[in-house]
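Journal club side-thread
Mid-discussion, someone asked how the predicted structure for our own chain would compare to the paper's figures. Pasting it here so we can look after the session.
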Amino acid sequence: MSTATVSLVEIAAEWRTARRLYPFYSALIREFQLDVPHSKDLENPVDRPEHEVLGRVQQWFTNVDRQVQVAQIRQMLQSRHFGEEAMLRALLLRHLPQDHKDENLREKLDYLLVQYFAAVAPHHPHEKNVTSAEVQEALQPVLGHVQFQQFPWTKELDKVADAVDGCATLAELLDSGLVELGRNAKSGLGESYFQPAALIEVTRFNFRLRLGFFRLMHSDLHSIRNALQELEAMGVVTVDCREAGLGTEEPLATLRTLCHQWKKPFREAYKAGQSFRQLGIVRNILSKKVMAHWAKKAKAASDSAQGIVAPVPPPPVTLEPVLPLPAAKNGDVDHAHFGNLEQLLESISEQLFGSKHKTTVSTVSVGESKQVLASWEVNAFVRGGDDAACVAIQRGVGARALLFESAEKVKRGQANKLIEALECAHVQAAVIQEQVAKAKDRGDIDSAVSLAATSKRLLAVIDETEKLKA
């Protein structure tokens, strides 16, 4: 093939890409009123081979790129049908070769690469074992053939992603600082971020966070729907949702409708907007409303029976598979009533060591209730030892379990030790905060993240249980 023929082929390819991108860029200008005129060259149906014309076209794209932010690209891709995979590929091929590598470009590549990977290699919402090889293969059309490279910072990103996997709610994730921690780690890479091999690892991390948001969002929505059913059964019609930026008497029917709308922001990848935080607030409001109802009902039953309490059934919940509770031996404490924290920790350890899955999320029995332990909490029990951070996590889990069990007994109208459990929980929360500070001082990010996540889970149970003291 002659040089002239090759040149014509390249020019034709450049025009095809430009014409594919033009409707999207033109829509950006109209939607966000950008100070860039539309391109007369691209609106002309004739493809002209002159270098001067092609130079004007490329400069026009550059002028739009300088004004467009990633949030605007995200909004446009969500609200219009531009042919997702083909448009994402064209946008990436447009942005990847750019010489001016700044924070704006980094954020755009962050979003476009993870969206492209999700589009061409979809995973199950709970699949978190995404490998670098999978990402490399999926991104080959935009990155080309990339040689694998080891980076020391990938371990830190994996620690953040593992901590996200251990979060139980969106509110817990948003308040944990994990998203900001991951964003700062990527910003700290500087120019090395834009290496193709680094982009593969960054995309794998972003996709894990994306899956984490997906899982937590659906968990919150499921909890809200269950709470709405409970409240409707109680005869409740409206709820005060001012804390979530809604009305003082928000109809339950409106909240159910909003559940469907809250599914849409998921396409924002892992960077949560205000709607995600609102979702978590609504979940807390409804959960507290349900809990207050059961506490009131249990108290009324206790008063009417003058000390002879008929157990009040708790609201129905869906439980994960439970690890078998070890059989009581002669002289052992009755597992239905844990007298102190040490006995509870011993029981949890026995259950975890009896499980085949010693490093994953597990569920253990605590009296008549169940507790879900995150992967790092399971590891703290299995690894054991005298490490202060490890012990703090163990005791934090134990305090959380005791408090939850006491709260469940309150709701059932049974004898409980709620005040003692709350005191224990507050003490352990303070101990964990001390260990978080020490871990940060010595630069142990892994321990600091794990401790902070366990602390958030414990404080959430404390906040819920405080409502039952009245």
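Post-session note: The longest strand covers residues 362-366.
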